[in-house]
Amino acid sequence: MTIQTYSDLQSAVGNWLARADLAANIPDFITIFEAVANRRLRVHQQEGAATLTPASGVATLPADYLAWRRVTWSGATSRELEYVHPSYLHALYPTAPAGPPRLFAIEGATLTVAPRDDSALTFDYFQKIPALSDANPANWLLAAWPDLYLFGALAEAQGFVKDTDSLTLWASRRNELLDEVERLDAKTRGPAGIRVMGPTP
Hints:
The chain is built from six helices and eight strands, in the order ααβββββαβββααα. The protein is α+β, with helices and mostly antiparallel strands. A hairpin with a 2-residue loop joins strand 6 and strand 7 (110-114).
């Protein structure tokens, strides 16, 4: 059976479960698996960028924000800002003075720069996996890894019915595939190495 859409996936999960009484729960199993995948995966397909425009040094994060990668200030001289803990930012700049920013912090759904400035920011970040639904029947993860979606949803289904042996089986298959996705992504990035900026002796 081809698994290319949300409807295909629901049908496949139902076939593998062979439990007609769980049909209404299958969307929940898929949603819970997506939450697991969002906590686990940080791969290149999730990399995105947005322009943030602060007001009094505070900007709202994108709705699909998962984790930050880089924040670049595009003021008089473009520069990459350094992340610090919010408590450190507020202790260092208690009066929120205006000026070219050096630091940023993230609290809840907002990003704060300090010193305070309202120039545009380029925000590179990891995006949540677009949730499957009737209105959004496909995404990159389903297209590339339909088996991961299937085994992930089956694991959640077995947890729901409290079948420990089947839960162990499908959770193991899900975790193996999550590991494989991460390994393959690492290969696309090439070997890591140390780069020294500026002249070297």
